[in-house]
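thought: fold this chain, then report.
action: predict
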Amino acid sequence: MRTALLRLLAEEGTVTATGAAGRLGYSSGLCSFHLRQLARYGRIEEVPQTGGRARPWRLRQAGGGATEETGRDGEFGEPARDLEAESDRQWLARRGRAPEGWRHDEAFSAVVHLTPEEMSRLAEEVRQLLARYGDRDDRPAGRPAAARPVAVVARLFPLLGG
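observation:
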């Protein structure tokens, strides 16, 4: 969701939580939370304004006025990992309040022996699998009625000996 918000900000320049909710198909409260988290980690900033209740956000400006890059394939490194961990902590703390069918998660992990090429190929296969659902961000009307935002976190990294 945060990547979708960053993309939207890159396209639009500025966006409010309500505007993001309308474009992405999430609630304005959820968008507001994630916008504040992105600001907390220095990815975005509030647009200075006078008066009114609207709270527009924009990508944080780097030194010469150019927008910061999000990195390869939309990744943004350590801040992204911190945001993912925070979302996971909130899920664990609140899952008892989730609707009955949503009170579980599908966490798993594995250690496999791969070459660097195989690791890259596996990562690409996971990206392709997730791409089947990617158009649902852009086309909220095309989502199944019961669909909700689900965080999918995959990390492939070598376990380096001591």
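thought: worth noting. The CA atoms of residues 36 and 51 lie 20 Å apart.
final: tokens above.
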